[in-house]
Every structure is written in C-alpha cells, then in structure tokens.
Automatic annotation (TrEMBL):
Natural source organism: Nocardiopsis sinuspersici
Any GO CC annotation of this UniProt entry: cytosol
Catalytic reaction equation(s): pyridoxal + ATP = pyridoxal 5'-phosphate + ADP + H(+)
Domain of life of the native organism: Bacteria
Protein name: pyridoxal kinase
Keyword Glycoprotein annotated: no
Enzyme type, top EC level: transferase
Stated family: Belongs to the ThiD family.
InterPro entries from the UniProt entry: HMP/HMP-P_kinase_dom, PM/HMP-P_kinase-1, Ribokinase-like
Pfam families: Phos_pyr_kin
Length: 266
C-alpha cells in the first residue's frame, strides 16, 4: 500500500470533471495523486457550452506514463477519458509494463450534454485492450448499454444484466451506474463482483445530469483502493462522497462545480 494513486485522463478546465476532479478527490481522501493527460476538452460558454476535443500526441502520453511510473512506486491507477483508439493503444502498452493491484476504468465515451452520436469512437478498442486489464469498471447508463450491447436499460434487473455481460468481457468488479437515468426517486447503481449483485441506492438530488459525478465516483474508488480498502467498501465511500458533492453543488448552484466537497473558492 502506497497511499498514492495515478490517473490517466483528460483535462477539463472548469475543474468539474476530468483529471482536475480526479486529483481533488484523491486529495480529499488523503491520497497523493499523479496524473497523465490524454486529451483536452474545452466547453465553449459562448456556444451553448459546446465541447471541443483535442487529443494529446500518443508519444507524449507514452513519455508521461514512463515518467510517472519510473518516479513513483505505483500499484493503483484510474483511467478516465482516453479519447482515441491510438491513445488506448499507448495506454494499454504502458500499463502492461508493470503489475497493478488495481486498474479502475471509467469508460468515458461522451461528456454529459453531448448527443450519443458524438460518442468517441473508442468502445471497441476499450473492450479489446483495456477491459481485460481492468479490475474495476464504472460504466454509466449509456456506456453500459454500449459495452453490454443492450438496446435499453430501464430497470434494476437490466442494470444487473448489463453488469454480468460487462463482467464477462474481463473486469473483475463492475459498477453500473443508473444515476438519474432510471425512473423513480432513487439514484440506483449495481455492484457485481462476479458472484453477487448488490444494489446501491440513494435518494436522487434533482434529476439533472451533473458534470463530474462519474469522474469523482471512480476517483474516490481508486483512492480508497490505494489506501488498502476492498472494492465493496470503496464503492460505498464513493457513492456517499458523490452524493454529498452533488448536494453541495446543487444547493450552491455553482455551474460545473466539482462534486468533491471542496467547493470553488473554499
Ligand atoms: N442527481 C443525483 N442524485 C444522487 N446521486 C446521483 C445523481 N446523479 C448521479 N448520481 C450518482 O453519482 C454517481 C455517478 O453517476 P453518473 O452521474 O450516472 O455517472 P457519469 O458521470 O459517469 O454519467 C452514481 O453513484 C450515481 O448514482
Ligand atoms: C476530460 C473529461 N473527462 C471525463 C468527462 C466525463 O465526466 P462525467 O464525470 O460527467 O461523466 C468529461 C466531461 O466533461 C471530461 O471533459
């Protein structure tokens, strides 16, 4: 156990999502964070917060991975937005060079607010190259449908079925996040450890999609694993932390605020 965690993910300048949110979540949970940037996402406030996506050159990503893994004794890594098949190749190659106790994958395909048609063309490369390396995967509703090849996910039973199908692709632990996408008063997720499915439920705070919720959720799981926790407990901590963060964000109405409990300016 090192109390250190590494994240390979995209940058999102407002601080709500991406690697900025990940590092804040690590810090908040007492874990020293290191990060490698795969791509830059910028939101355009003058154009309905449209998204611009710029990938970092694969050789630059490879250099960053080499630097971080040579400099520190690391055994837990979180993967966020990778962004392109070339990036996935280079990250998979970098990860295969050393053993990892945990590889936590948030299989980001699009940002909230983007149309599904804008999905980065990465699901097949993620499935082939990264899912077999992942010990924990945290797909949201759209990602779960895509990876599991299901037309719809409407019930808790569907969440369980998606988790089972994704588990068969390689990851040892699967958390399918229903979030605000399933009807009803609760934000329901399902955690499947290969044998048992556990339903995680907490009252929804509003029904808007909150930017950065999924990043923070997977980052919190990663931090708890870095500290030596088991996956089930790490998922419980993450669920509670994200809910608290959303609660603060919603009540302060901060646009794109991080869902970590460190609110902007504090
Ligand atoms: N409005 C909400 N109220 C309470 N919990 C929420 C809400 N929205 C999302 N969550 C929870 O936050 C976590 C991240 O989920 P989600 O937002 O669906 O991920 P993503 O950002 O990957 O789309 C999950 O545990 C989900 O159930
Ligand atoms: C760089 C980056 N990573 C990940 C995400 C996904 O964030 P979320 O936690 O809202 O799913 C976004 C969304 O804006 C992003 O810009």
């Amino acid at each position: 156990m090192t109390n250190r965690a590494y994240v390979i993910a995209g940058s999102e300048a407002t601080g709500g999502a991406g690697i900025q949110a990940d590092l804040k979540a690590f810090q908040e949970l007492g874990v020293y964070g290191m990060g490698t940037i795969t791509c830059i996402v910028s939101f355009d406030p003058k154009n309905d917060w449209g998204h611009r996506f710029v990938p970092i050159a694969p050789d630059v990503i490879a250099d960053q991975i080499e630097a971080a893994t040579s400099c520190h004794d690391l055994d837990v890594v979180k993967l966020g937005m990778l962004g392109t098949p070339d990036t996935i190749d280079v990250v998979a190659e970098g990860l295969r060079r050393q053993p990892w106790r945990h590889v936590v994958l948030d299989p980001v395909l699009i940002c909230k607010g983007q149309e599904p048609g804008a999905a980065l063309d990465t699901d097949k490369a993620l499935t082939a190259q990264i899912l077999p390396l992942a010990t924990v995967i945290t797909p949201n509703h759209f990602e779960a449908r895509t990876l599991a090849g299901m037309e719809s996910i409407e019930t808790v039973d569907d969440l369980v079925e998606a988790a089972r199908r994704i588990h068969a692709l390689g990851p040892r632990h699967v958390v399918v996040k229903g979030g605000v996408e399933l009807p009803g008063p609760d934000a329901v997720d399902v955690y499947f450890d290969g044998e048992e499915a556990t339903v995680l439920s907490a009252p929804k705070i509003g029904d808007a999609r909150v930017s950065g919720a999924g990043c923070t959720f997977a980052a919190a799981i990663t931090a708890e694993l870095a500290k030596g926790g088991d996956v089930g407990r790490a998922v419980d901590v993450a669920k509670a932390m994200v809910r608290e963060g959303i609660d603060q964000r919603v009540t302060t109405h901060a646009p794109f605020a991080s869902v970590t409990t460190a609110t902007p300016g504090s």
